[in-house]
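Appendix C reproduces, verbatim, an entry submitted by the partner laboratory led by Prof. M.T., so that reviewers can inspect both the input and the predicted structure.
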Amino acid sequence: MNKYLFILLTLTLILACKKPLSKTQKTIELIPKSTASIVFIAGYDEGDNKYYNNAKDYFKAQKIKVVDTLYSIAEIINYLNKKTTNNYDKIHIVSHSNSWLGMSLKTIKQGKRITLETLEKAKNEYKIPTLNSAITNTTKVIFHSCGLGENKALLQALKELFTTEKTPKIIASSFFNVFGGKYAGHYLAKPYYGYYPTAESPGPIALSKEFKVKYPKTVINWLTALKTRKETTLGKVYSYKFNIPVDWEFTFDNPSEIPELKDKEAIMDWVSEDSEMAEILYNLKIPIEKYRWKSKIKGNKLYIKGKTTVLCVLEPILEENDPTEYKVTDLNDTSLYQIL
């Protein structure tokens, strides 16, 4: 029996407003106007999601050079190597990221998403060039990637890519980056997660009770948060959702060996009894019962599909002494950023 796994991620983000950053919006990140800084917008928007476009508008408003045609770490390093006359003060890299499948930023052009494993594989195969310029001991490489600050091992691997005879600072936040907000061009928000089998929602009341049990010390009106899908007032807690599907394909030498999985309980038993599949789900850290499971037999192949809907509640981070202001995204603030 041969086995193949395909894990896909569909993000339907509503973090970014549809309008570009207006001149009346305040910006709250401490970024000086400097030709010695550069921003790589390492992705493109799909559908109504304007995350990258809003990030581009935000940094352009700071008078910083923006490059928006490079979507892999290898391409970014190649670009920096060609700019031998510049030693950058700050290198910003904007890329979607999540706790389940790593960064949207690719290892190489048309390569795989960056995880610790894919990055190490690309490095070992010498597919990523060595950086030979652009860095000083005071350079800051800032990854605007949601939750990346939680993954110290990956940050360390990224730091090695940007280290020459000089050693820069690598900076990323454990929180969500929000660009193009209603009240600020950029701010950070703390995420809280819940799950349910896709198309089988138990309803907002039941889900709010699950959040309350999961986060007993957090003072949030979960029901209101789950019903609020965009910023209504400054600092208002809101939520969005996206789907994570997992697809397996099994090929049998003899069709008579294919198990008949009649219901979701049988499918979950099948998945749980396979160590490789169980490990994959364990690493995703989403309970198996939170997926909608389906199976199909076609010829000598068995297809198993699971899909979960992730509910993400976002709590904007406000100033401790002034809840009417977003907390300034100071890159030196270790309460907001992981700095290596």
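The radius of gyration is 22 Å. Additional entries are available on request from the coordinating office.
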